[in-house]
């Protein structure tokens, strides 16, 4: 069976994440990359927006400091 390109609907979504300690100005940034499966570019965009809303988080590190992760931007690529 031959695989047709249309059967492979994968998209890459990249997010810029700012990391700060105890609410200070962000001193570290990450680019997190996710592979999204979608039936169309529009659906991939909607999935990326939904994912962006779940990326912010706060945790306490081993020193007792609160580490905040905030999503600053979304960069989506079609594939």
Can you summarize this structure?
The protein is of the alpha+beta class. The chain has one helix and four strands, in the order ββαββ.
Keywords:
79 residues, alpha+beta, 1 helix, elongated
Could you explain the architecture of this structure?
The chain has one domain (5-77). The protein starts with 9 loop residues before the first strand and ends with a strand. The longest helix has 14 residues, at 41-54. By secondary structure, the chain is of the alpha+beta class. The mean pLDDT is 85. The protein is 18% helix and 48% strand. It is elongated and about 55 Å long. Strands 2-1-4-3 form a 4-stranded antiparallel beta sheet. The chain is built from 1 helix and 4 strands; from the N terminus they run E-E-H-E-E.
Show the helix and strand layout.
Elements: E1 10-21, E2 28-37, H1 41-54, E3 57-60, E4 66-77
Antiparallel strand pairs: 1-2, 1-4, 3-4
The structure class reads alpha+beta
Uncertain regions: pLDDT < 50 for 5+ in a row? none
- The count of helical stretches stands at 1
Q: Quick one: how many beta strands?
A: 4
Gap between N and C termini: 22 Å
- What is the percentage of strand-forming residues? over 45%
């Amino acid at each position: 069976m031959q695989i047709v390109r249309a059967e492979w609907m994968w998209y890459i979504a990249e997010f810029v994440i700012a990391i700060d300690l105890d609410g200070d100005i962000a001193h570290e940034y990450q680019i997190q990359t996710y592979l999204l499966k979608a039936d169309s570019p529009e659906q991939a965009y909607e999935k990326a927006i939904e994912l962006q809303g779940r990326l912010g988080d706060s945790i306490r590190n081993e020193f007792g400091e609160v580490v905040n992760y905030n999503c600053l931007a979304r960069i989506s690529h079609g594939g």
